[in-house]
Amino acid sequence: MAASQGRLSTGGIIEAGGDSSSRNDTSHSSPIITPKKSQPSYLNLSGQAKSGYRIARDFALNIEKWFGAHENGTYFCQALSRQYGRCELERYPVELKNLSSKFESIMSNITLALSSVEAISVQYSALAKLMPCDDPLFNTWSITKLSREMDKIYKMLKEETNVKRVIRENVFHCRDEDLLEVYVSAWEFNTQIKSSTINLFLIELDFDRNK
Question: What string of DSSP letters covers 123-181?
Answer without folding.
Answer: HHHHHHHHS---S-SSSSS-HHHHHHHHHHHHHHHHHHHHHHHHHHHHHTT---HHHHH
